[in-house]
């Protein structure tokens, strides 16, 4: 036992993950117990599933990693329910256990792995195809190892939870709280990325601004809650109108931004705004598609249906060479105001 404990004193401080701790522990446990197979299983009680996550096999009995069983069919569950740590007559005691019967397990040793709140996280197990006697010292080592693994699993879960929380916070920082669309910060980051890609690939950049005409009147006449529901509905319609590679986000207030890579252009640097050819046609078609998406009746709840006359949408095709992101935004904004003036004159 002492050489095993000496190896353990080296393995534990060096472990930075569950796997780096468990693999040497399984080897040590197999040596200490004199059993052919040792393994760590995780348990999902909600799904009723038992997964062999890591295993160490030295003899004819091979417990494969990745093996999934029904929790209620496992020896781990039966040993836990019966309060047994070690059993050397598995076929006689639990001959109906399908996985144990298939693997030919005769001796089985198991210790639950529990979190600080007592919740079952998994089991630390050993098995043999021969009948073996497991002494109290070996059982004590099994309990020690189980506690070590439990502490590291808890740490791993905490780290995973923190990563998930950080990812959620990062997502919130780049999302408009009302519509769920990318916000101005995310849009400007994407504009910079698309601009660099357009320069590398000699493609034009399509940038559009959607301004919701008469939005202030909606708020004034129907209230800000109705205005918020209208913005959410517009966002949904704009999203539905997108094609592959297109992006829409909320700049703020009643303005949305459209971004995409467009058709190819010559590497030469003409004026940044392209008003002819395939790039201009792509910009015009996207503007018309987005304007059509915004037009029509909106059910804003509480019995209110709004017949909306449409938005001013300006989309420009821009040559990327020598173009800055803020200049691209100004070009799209200028095009939107051209459309807005034309719409007012047409009324």
Automatic annotation (TrEMBL):
EC number: 2.7.7.65
Source organism superkingdom: Bacteria
CDD domains: GGDEF (cd01949)
Coiled-coil annotated residue ranges, if any: 181-208
Keywords: Coiled coil
GO molecular function: diguanylate cyclase activity
Domain GGDEF residues, every copy: 203-347
Catalytic activity: 2 GTP = 3',3'-c-di-GMP + 2 diphosphate
PROSITE patterns on file: GGDEF
BP terms from Gene Ontology: cell adhesion involved in single-species biofilm formation; negative regulation of bacterial-type flagellum-dependent cell motility
GO cellular component terms given for this protein: plasma membrane
Pfam family, one: GGDEF
NCBIfam families named in the record: GGDEF
Name of the protein: diguanylate cyclase
Native species: Inhella crocodyli
């Amino acid at each position: 036992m002492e050489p095993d404990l000496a190896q353990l004193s080296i393995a534990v401080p060096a472990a930075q993950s569950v796997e780096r701790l468990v693999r040497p522990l399984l080897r040590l446990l197999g040596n200490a117990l004199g059993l052919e197979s040792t393994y760590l299983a995780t348990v999902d009680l909600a799904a009723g599933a038992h997964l062999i996550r890591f295993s160490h096999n030295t003899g004819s009995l091979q417990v494969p990693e990745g093996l999934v069983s029904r929790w209620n069919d496992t020896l781990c569950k039966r040993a836990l329910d019966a309060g047994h740590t070690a059993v050397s007559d598995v076929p006689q005691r639990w001959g109906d256990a399908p996985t144990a019967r298939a693997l030919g397990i005769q001796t089985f040793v198991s210790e639950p792995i529990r979190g600080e709140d007592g919740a079952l996280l998994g089991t630390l197990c050993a098995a043999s195809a021969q009948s073996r006697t497991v002494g109290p010292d070996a059982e004590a080592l099994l309990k020690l190892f189980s506690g070590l693994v439990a502490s590291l699993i808890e740490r791993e879960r905490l780290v995973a939870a923190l990563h998930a929380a950080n990812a959620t916070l990062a997502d919130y920082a780049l999302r408009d709280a009302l519509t769920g669309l990318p916000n101005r910060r995310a849009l400007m980051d994407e504009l910079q990325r698309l601009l660099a890609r357009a320069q590398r690939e000699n493609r034009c950049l399509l940038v559009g601004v959607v301004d919701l005409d008469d939005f202030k009147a909606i708020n004034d006449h129907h209230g800000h809650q109705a205005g918020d529901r209208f913005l959410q509905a517009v966002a949904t319609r704009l999203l539905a109108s997108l094609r592959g590679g297109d992006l829409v986000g909320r700049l703020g207030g009643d303005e949305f931004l459209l971004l995409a890579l467009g058709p190819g252009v010559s590497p030469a640097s003409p004026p940044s705004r392209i008003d002819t050819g395939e790039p201009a046609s792509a910009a015009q078609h996207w503007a018309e598609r987005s304007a059509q998406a915004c037009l029509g009746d909106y059910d804003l709840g509480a019995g209110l249906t709004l017949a909306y006359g449409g938005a001013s949408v300006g989309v420009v095709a821009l040559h990327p060479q020598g173009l800055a992101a803020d200049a691209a935004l100004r070009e799209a904004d200028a095009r939107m105001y051209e459309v807005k003036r034309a719409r007012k004159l047409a009324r």
